[in-house]
């Protein structure tokens, strides 16, 4: 699961850095659903981390970097990306497509 909040610029060591058109910055978390007997699943880490996706490369080539960043306990083969916005779970993203090809799924994300 990935919580997407699009940002137009990125802070690096306190300074602003402009990103290219083919970059999509968002916050990412994973859903810890390893225990099937848990009443509810928790998003980890508690404070989402920022990740920059390239909108022209298929997500299947980028998901390993997100998995490493989050240090998720799941197997990479079991990982997928899901939009989470305003407290609601949205659509799953197609890992064989680019973010640029999935504009409809990302429509309406608030910019910060």
TrEMBL record:
One of its GO terms (cellular component) is cytoplasm. This is FHOD1 N-terminal GTPase-binding domain-containing protein. PANTHER family: FORMIN HOMOLOGY 2 DOMAIN CONTAINING, ISOFORM I. It comes from the Eukaryota. It comes from Euphydryas editha (Edith's checkerspot). Residues 26-111 form the FHOD1 N-terminal GTPase-binding domain. Signal peptide: none annotated. GO terms for molecular function: actin filament binding. GO terms for biological process: cortical actin cytoskeleton organization. InterPro entries: ARM-like, FHOD1_GBD_N.
